[in-house]
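We emphasize that the prediction below concerns an isolated chain of 268 residues; any contacts that depend on oligomerization or on bound cofactors are therefore not represented. The input was used exactly as deposited, without trimming of termini.
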Amino acid sequence: MKINPILLVFIASSAFAQAPAGSAKQRSPIDFTGYWVSVITEGWRYRMITPPKGDYGVGTWPLPLNPEGIRVLNLWDPAKDESSGNACKAYGGGGIMRIPGRIHVTWQDDNTLKLEYDAGTQTRILHFGGTPPANLQPSLQGYSVASWELPPAGRGAPAGGGGGGTGFEVAGTPPPVDGAKNQRAGVLKLVTTHLTPGYLRKNGAPYSASATVTEYFNRTNEANGDSWLFNTTIVDDPVYLTGPYITSENFKHQADATGWNPTACEAR
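Result of the prediction step, given as a token string:
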């Protein structure tokens, strides 16, 4: 399948109407359940191989790190992370979608989706219709509030537009939608807060406990039987970033758990 490299402009959620009443599972416009494997169509250097210390991609998909972010990046010490029990810092809510591997998506209950990752044996819980509890303690995956966002009645899926620039890693979206065979009737939006500090890339590129991670998921079903999941992640962090860090990831649906291989976090 050819993927056109464009920036997802539907991330402006004002273009969507909220889903009707009922449980999140009942009103789901898209079925994300099953097994998905990441397909690395861009950013190979930063995703398949741990970048060298101090490399934040100047000239090639640069991270929008401010001076403090660059200072912390240059302090990266994987041995120290390992000895202090922080080998999973690249597997937190701000970076887990960039780690190559497989995701198993299931409904934990009618209003809660569960995403299990074999990379780092991580689990994310997506809460529909909720807000973070009072006095919630930060964690590696934080607290994710989920919602279905649908286009207004009588309109198709929003079109994409070209884009790019500092702080953007754009993988893309599929060709225009044929509504008879695709499930792009809406998107799944996540907003994750209450994160412990983590890494945007495995070489210590930091995000702080003040970071907010906003994500948009959509799916296509192709004529050849393939199904694809597309994720756009936006990390906002007033401590280490000069602006939003936007990335896009692609995953292909699997018929079963073939290749599922839970592994421990790797700090290097």
